[in-house]
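Let us practice reading a record.
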Amino acid sequence: MSRSDTRIVYSTGAGRVCPGCGFPANACRCKARAALAAAAAPKGPVRVARQTAGRGGKGVSVITGLALPAAELEVLAKALKQRCGTGGRVVDGVIEIQGEHRDTLVEELKKRGIEAKRAGG
């Protein structure tokens, strides 16, 4: 009898058990690992767009689609702000740079090995 044949399928103490990791289904590590991998995976190409919504008509260049940890996003944002000579911030995995700097940002991202495209008109 192999180990896979002796796995617990249900336990009165923990309820259903995940067949992948052996933990209770509500604390499954497979799902957590899959969720982290999905969050870290790129959601598409890196896009550099311009937005004015909710900013009183002031435009910002927005960089979306970067699959980097928060600390690396902060470092990249700082370098891009210095390159453009302006301010900005990182919000929910999106870098916002004040002003219209799409061409400069696309050029700088390509220099850093990140394939970026200009989005919008």
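A brief commentary: The chain has a mean pLDDT of 79.
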